[in-house]
């Protein structure tokens, strides 16, 4: 199993940062990559046309290995909302189809799906779990599968719920979507990099990820997968970089209608993302070395250290198959003000988030047992 990897980051040693789901810290290697690229900007005459594409191709290749697709099926995006817009603007199964998501889905996904439903004269269906069920995650998955029917046009959900860490059974949901002809769009922002996802095995049609959380990348940069449903899709913009002659700068006005293969047509303009892409490249290399399974196992070893603490106070901690190890809700005693508790934790340099009436704890490989012990001590 992995050991603590804190030495690869520049985190303040006095801080217990249990909040990777808010934003992941950058690696030392990513920081150095950014500085190298920044220094190269001093003398742009040394840049060659190939430099606009080399790092893009390498990042796509690395990401494709993580999610089980071909590099040509990966597109560079600036945000999840951009990726949702690409997918939903290219999916038109006909008017009156239902659009399904889950309760408290992240706003970018919710509003993107609401617009699609409004524009396609469809109903937006919000599925919730049963709070009285023995397992919230199990009941939520059951209800979601039941809601998907022949009149469903699209399902858009996060792979792991961003507020409480409930895992959705992507394989079962993808299979059901395929059966009824619905498009399956997944927001992987809170899982890709820390949890294994196979887009082909799960029959995912579009996977949309911001990079600044579990991919340990920079802000304003994301990665996406677009499958066969989008092979002839229309991009949101007409970037010169997405055409077949884009690598030949001297012939750019020999206008080519043909796009580069696959999802390349959906790349955002100015895809090269100098300074930012080298940071993400180093992060992806490190994540592949750790493996998502390795991150999950390491996070599980620390999460379980909270079980006795919670049980001693008559509180729960979900360790079921429907709960992520790297991101989870930590229930508080009834009547407790979560925001007040978070303020006290901040004072002791123990950082988590408040989501709903619970603390949201998110663990990565830079954390160690000392961080968990500091959290328990502060909560006492």
UniProtKB/TrEMBL annotation:
Q: Where is the Aminotransferase class V domain?
A: 52-358
**Gene3D superfamilies, A to Z:** Aspartate Aminotransferase, domain 1, Type I PLP-dependent aspartate aminotransferase-like (Major domain)
Can you say what this protein is called? Aminotransferase class V-fold PLP-dependent enzyme
Q: Which UniProt keywords apply?
A: Aminotransferase, Pyridoxal phosphate, Transferase
- Superkingdom of this protein's organism: Bacteria
A GO molecular function annotation here is: transaminase activity
State if Transferase is listed as a keyword. Answer: yes
Pfam families, per database record: Aminotran_5
Xref: SUPFAM superfamilies: PLP-dependent transferases
Q: Which InterPro entries match?
A: Aminotrans_V_dom, PyrdxlP-dep_Trfase, PyrdxlP-dep_Trfase_major, PyrdxlP-dep_Trfase_small
Signal peptide start-end: none
């Amino acid at each position: 199993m992995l050991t603590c990897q804190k030495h690869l980051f520049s985190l303040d040693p006095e801080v217990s940062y249990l909040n990777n789901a808010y934003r992941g810290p950058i690696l030392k290697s990513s920081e150095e990559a950014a500085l190298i690229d920044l220094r190269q900007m001093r003398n742009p005459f040394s840049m060659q046309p190939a430099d606009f594409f080399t790092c893009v191709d390498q990042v796509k290749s690395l990401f494709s290995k993580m999610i089980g697709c071909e590099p040509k099926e990966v597109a560079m995006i600036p945000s999840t909302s951009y990726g949702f817009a690409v997918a939903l603007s290219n999916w038109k199964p006909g008017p009156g189809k239902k659009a399904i998501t889950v309760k408290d889905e992240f706003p970018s996904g919710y509003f993107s799906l609401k617009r699609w439903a409004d524009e396609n004269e469809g109903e937006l269906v919000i599925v919730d779990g049963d709070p009285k069920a023995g397992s919230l995650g199990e009941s939520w998955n059951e209800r979601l599968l039941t809601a998907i029917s022949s009149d469903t046009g699209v399902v858009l959900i996060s792979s792991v719920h961003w507020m409480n860490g409930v895992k959705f059974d992507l394989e079962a949901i993808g299979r059901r979507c395929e059966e009824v002809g619905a498009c399956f769009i997944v927001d992987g922002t809170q899982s890709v990099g820390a949890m294994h996802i196979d887009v082909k095995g799960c029959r995912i049609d579009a996977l949309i990820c911001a990079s600044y959380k579990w991919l340990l990348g920079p802000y304003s940069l994301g990665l996406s997968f677009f499958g066969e449903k989008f092979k002839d899709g229309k991009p949101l913009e007409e970037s010169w970089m997405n055409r077949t002659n884009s690598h030949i700068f001297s012939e750019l006005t020999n206008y080519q209608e043909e796009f580069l293969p696959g999802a390349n047509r959906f790349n955002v303009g100015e895809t090269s993302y100098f300074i930012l892409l080298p940071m993400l490249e180093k992060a992806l290399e490190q994540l592949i070395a750790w493996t998502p399974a390795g991150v999950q196992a390491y996070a599980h070893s620390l999460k379980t250290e909270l079980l006795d603490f919670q049980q001693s106070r008559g509180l729960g901690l979900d360790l079921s198959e429907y709960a992520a190890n790297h991101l989870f809700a930590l229930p508080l005693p009834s009547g407790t003000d979560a925001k007040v508790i978070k303020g006290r934790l901040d004072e002791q340099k123990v950082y988590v988030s408040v989501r709903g009436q619970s603390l949201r704890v998110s663990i990565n490989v830079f954390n160690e047992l000392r961080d968990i012990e500091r959290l328990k001590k502060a909560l006492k």
